[in-house]
Amino acid sequence: MRHQNATAYRFLAPYLLIFSVFWVWPIISSFLISFQATRTVPWRWAPTFNWGRLIGDPAFFNALKNTLLILVIQVPVMISLAIVMAVLLNSPLLKARGLYRFAFFAPVVVGEVAYSAVFRLMFNLNFGIINKLLNSVGLPSIDWFSNVTPAMALIMIAVTWRWAGYNAIILLAGLQSIPDDVYEAATLDRVSKVKQFFYITLPLLKPIIVFCAVLSIIGTMQLFTEPFLITERGGPGGGTETLGLLLYRQGFRSLNFGYASAVAYTMAGLAIAITLVQLWLTKEPK
Amino acid sequence: MAAVTLSNVVKRFGVYEIIHGANIDIADGEFVVFVGPSGCGKSTLLRMVAGLEDISGGEIAIGGKVMNDVEAAERGIAMVFQSYALYPHMTVEQNLSFGLRMNGNPKADTERRVKRAAEILCIDELMQRRPKQLSGGQRQRVAIGRAIVREPQVFLFDEPLSNLDAELRVQMRVEISRLHKELGVTMIYVTHDQTEAMTLADRIVVLKAGNVEQIGAPLDLYDDPANRFVAGFIGSPKMNFLAAKVVEADNGSATVELVNHAGARLKKPLQTTPPAVGADVVLGVRPEHFFDAGQGDCDIAVKADVAEHLGSVSYVYADAGGTELIIEREASRHRASGDDLVVSIKAGKALLFDTKGARIR
């Protein structure tokens, strides 16, 4: 048996080597770097340097606030929207289901730069279609890029557009795993369709909803593309800067890898903590 | 309680007609079993009664009221599904009370009904468990309990025992029979298992390919089947069929000779015009209607192949000139493989069918 295992590990060795060098070591290394002052040459060991700065850094708390704000507002809205989309996709009344499924999933495969450019055009103050639509119903134009609140809203709209369909497809798979006869039994029990949704569909879909929420929380904690490309590096004035963007700015603009590592570990820790709390809150009774 | 009437009921899925004009009258309080092979339309028919399938043609009435356009929820029926269809996230108690709670039934009445169902089905101890913590038999009881609490006019059962093991199936069969006696409610039960049909039903409806082949009491179907399909489907082990030819016919009887047994002739009294001399016919003989040599009207020689010993009786699988026969013998008189055996057939116990399967009476 031991000999067999050794053979297996020899086959796995090339992968394990690459995995260790490019995956495990950077994780350990970045953790160690977070305890070093990296803006001096050579780097020096200073355990409280970056972590101490983090606690008192207004830029970090601004990024944390923005990230959590997006998380608290955008994730529930997107998951709710995804559930509605999934239920509609699952309706036997819907024709051309395959086409809708593709349309819902398409935003995920569209290039990030292309989609960001289109969003910038759509939300442009002077000639964007969104402001034209607002004007057409008598509402004033909104300067989506110069004010913090509209800029945050824009980020949330963009992220929701991009990921709601993806989550809807996952939820659709969950919906399709609920047996039809459970609904038939409920129908014979004289339970209305609306009550069936709230008392049967949602509880049975809960594990999938939690899964989508966890994925979304992790994704939002790492949010980078939209504030970088759409609101131009977290603008206006850092109003949409997220933790991901702060990490990038510190690590790759200021070359302060120690501080960037501390931010990265904080993001990972927060994502794990929020996910654990959520899993605990939605735990199935034994 | 209510009578159920199906008049010329037709079901089509697109261009395919699945049920071809079924006419069935089910009396108030009767236990009727729809039986037939897979794909015969029995479950579809039941689902049409339940309102879970549209009716393409004809009428279904429950308690004298035509139900074609009445929603499933308003038909006063309760259904037990093959897969149990319990709500997996609810406890047994919640499963039983869910429908009543959702419809604003008074709490005290809901509790009374749930308690009564639990007592009838002996599931009091399971009330706080979830379906995944129950065995198949327990789940089935809960599914039946959910039907009981609705206090329906008609119970519908869609192959409720098919997921249970043999022993539990027998036990649940007895319990369903007892439940029918206790509640006295009209019950319609779908199964492909003719033993279930025979043991449970007041009357059986035999279906084949969307047609009602025969309706009758279990023993009437057994003793007096309308055609070869019913004769072969009802009874276990199934009826034996032997090819024969009419060699003499007069007013009131026909003499047939078995094709693979030259000289083996049987004079069968008939109430209708006998088939013409030379016509091919089929002789149907139940396994228990083979007698010892010389005790019937016609002897045939067979070669025993395999014997199944069930204790009280044995079934001998024998070759009769290329046709396999199943012969019931007393346990002590079974034959070993390869033995020659002579058995006898009595005209009064044999049934005659034409080559299309219709009974010649």
From TrEMBL, chain A:
InterPro entries, alphabetized: ABC_transporter_permease, MetI-like, MetI-like_sf
Alphabetized SUPFAM superfamilies for the sequence: MetI-like
Entry GO terms, CC: plasma membrane
Amino-acid biosynthesis as UniProt keyword: no
Transmembrane segments annotated in the record for this chain: 12-35, 68-90, 102-124, 144-164, 197-218, 257-281
Record's keyword annotation contains Cell cycle: no
Keywords, ordered alphabetically: Cell membrane, Membrane, Transmembrane, Transmembrane helix, Transport
Chief localisation class: membrane
GO biological process, one term: transmembrane transport
Location within or outside the cell: Cell membrane
Annotated ABC transmembrane type-1 domain residues: 64-278
Entry membrane topology: Multi-pass membrane protein
Pfam families membership: BPD_transp_1 (PF00528)
Protein family according to the UniProt entry: Belongs to the binding-protein-dependent transport system permease family.
PANTHER family xref list: ABC TRANSPORTER PERMEASE PROTEIN, INNER MEMBRANE ABC TRANSPORTER PERMEASE PROTEIN YCJO
Name of this chain's protein: Binding-protein-dependent transport systems inner membrane component
UniProtKB/TrEMBL annotation, chain B:
Domain ABC transporter residues, every copy: 4-234
Alphabetical list of SUPFAM superfamilies matching this protein: MOP-like (SSF50331), P-loop containing nucleoside triphosphate hydrolases (SSF52540)
One annotated Gene Ontology cellular component of this protein: maltose transport complex
Signal sequence region: none
The entry's keywords: ATP-binding, Cell inner membrane, Cell membrane, Membrane, Nucleotide-binding, Transport
InterPro entries the UniProt entry points to: AAA+_ATPase, ABC_transporter-like_ATP-bd, ABC_transporter-like_CS, ABC_transpr_MalK-like, ABC_transpr_MalK/UgpC-like, Mo/tungstate-bd_C_term_dom, NA-bd_OB-fold, OB_MalK-like
Gene Ontology terms, MF aspect: ABC-type maltose transporter activity; ATP binding; ATP hydrolysis activity
Protein's membrane topology: Peripheral membrane protein
Localisation: Cell inner membrane
Family: Belongs to the ABC transporter superfamily.
Name used for this protein in its record: Sugar ABC transporter
Lineage: Bacteria, Pseudomonadati, Pseudomonadota, Alphaproteobacteria, Hyphomicrobiales
